[in-house]
Design a protein that fits this description.
Keywords: NADP, Oxidoreductase. This is Nitroreductase/dihydropteridine reductase. The protein is built from 9 helices and 4 strands, in the order ααβααβαααβαβα. It has a 4-stranded antiparallel β-sheet with strand order 1-2-4-3, sandwiched between helices. Helix 5 packs antiparallel against helix 6. The protein starts with a helix and ends with a helix. The structure holds flavin mononucleotide (FMN). The site of flavin mononucleotide (FMN) has 10 residues, from strand 3.
């Protein structure tokens, strides 16, 4: 499939074939996609809970009870579910950890370059932590960027997906002890294979988007 075909092929899957499992090879690709996403100053302010087993998905389904139950079958019948979590804070020790990781990856020819990088990390995070006072919100933006590239990436692997903000983040934070670890949950993405009967498939229901004339100003 070329890019245009992939963009039309992917859609928010509403009904999964519970008998189909994502291969180990594709699960490895999925984890690599999550890991390789860009983020501002390479902050990587995320953590991912990956539910691959029935027991893992049952735990994930604790976030799709009550008001959120419309999303429950998309969790239980999918092959896997990724819960995107964001850091609730960032401090000097974390910035140092990022710089040390870059260093180990061989990105700095000398300590001056490393210190300049660390200075940039502190400058940008400082703007958000102290001037704009939106550090957590800014870190969430980095996680959403990951989600965006993830949705296209998994489609390119021929996998169906469902991004879900309709989840009980408090219940999931409790289930996975996230807040104690400095994270909170944001969005879940189910992964697997569509059923033939899924009403939302682009074979049955065409995609709807605003017209080019409305969303572009080409100068
Ligand atoms: C961040 C985000 C959260 C979403 N939350 C849900 C959800 O909780 N349940 C659901 O069925 N669809 C959810 N959607 C799917 C959107 O409704 C869907 O992406 C949109 O209608 C465009 O359709 P398409 O994805 O099929 O192209 C979500 C999409 C995004 C990007």
């Amino acid at each position: 499939m070329n890019l245009k075909e992939t963009l039309n092929w992917r859609y928010t899957t509403k009904e999964y074939d519970a008998s189909k499992k994502i291969s180990d090879t594709d699960m490895a690709e999925i984890k690599n996609l999550l890991r390789m996403s860009p983020s501002s100053v390479n902050l990587q302010p995320w953590h991912f809970i990956v539910a691959e087993t029935a027991a893992g998905k049952a735990r994930m389904a604790k976030g799709t009870q009550g008001f959120f139950s419309f999303n429950e079958p998309k969790v239980t019948n999918a092959s896997a579910v990724v819960l995107f979590c964001v850091k609730t804070d960032a401090d000097d020790a974390y910035y140092q950890h990022i710089a040390d990781t870059e260093d180990k990856s061989g990105r700095f020819p000398n300590d001056d370059v490393k210190n300049r990088f660390l200075g940039a990390v502190k400058a940008f995070t400082g703007i958000h932590k102290y001037d704009l006072k939106d550090l957590q919100h800014w870190m969430e933006k980095q996680v959403y960027l990951n989600i965006g590239s993830f949705l296209l990436g998994v489609a390119s692997l021929g996998l169906d997906a469902t991004p879900m903000e309709g989840i009980d983040v408090k219940a999931l934070d409790e289930e996975f002890g996230l807040r104690e670890k400095g994270y909170t949950s944001l969005v879940a993405v189910s992964l697997g294979y569509r059923t033939k009967s899924d009403f939302n498939s682009t074979e049955k229901t065409p995609k709807s988007r605003l017209a080019e004339s409305e969303i572009f100003t080409v100068i």
